[in-house]
Design the sequence.
């Protein structure tokens, strides 16, 4: 009887979780899922398109939730409304700052340099610790200073 009850509770938890995933506490990080994403001036398809993103994986900060819409802030600080289903909970980041920065073999300033990346490069964000983050661009990855990434750390 207890096993059946636990199984039922587990099943109910699985069914309820996707609905709650859309109601996360803001702010939180997300990435652009679609090949093309319209940012609107309000939370409806009736509002004017203010900007079109054409960069899957671009990190955004979700700052407000309204039904199927999310108010986002992009790396340039621009804000607008997008359809929630076109965002992914996957973590990504974009290289910021001036000039190239290094992707290193290990999370240490004196670790060998594997690659150099330019500001504006978008990649997948891994774990961050002690000011360093795992960062992958295509099939190339390494460790990069957290301060050179927008999309890392607390939103």
Sequence:
């Amino acid at each position: 009887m207890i096993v059946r009850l636990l199984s039922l509770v587990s099943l109910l938890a699985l069914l309820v979780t996707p609905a709650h995933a859309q109601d996360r506490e803001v702010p939180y990080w997300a990435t652009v899922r679609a090949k093309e994403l319209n940012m609107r001036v309000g939370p409806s398809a009736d509002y004017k398109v203010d900007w079109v993103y054409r960069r899957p994986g671009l990190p955004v900060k979700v700052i407000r939730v309204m039904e199927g819409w999310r108010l986002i802030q992009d790396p340039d600080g621009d804000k607008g409304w997008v359809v929630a289903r076109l965002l992914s909970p996957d973590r990504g980041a974009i290289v910021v700052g001036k000039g190239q920065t290094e992707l290193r073999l290990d999370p240490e300033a004196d670790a060998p340099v594997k690659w150099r990346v330019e500001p504006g490069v978008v990649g997948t964000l891994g774990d961050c610790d002690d000011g360093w983050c795992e960062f992958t661009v295509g099939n190339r990855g390494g460790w990069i200073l957290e301060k050179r990434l927008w999309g890392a750390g607390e939103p």
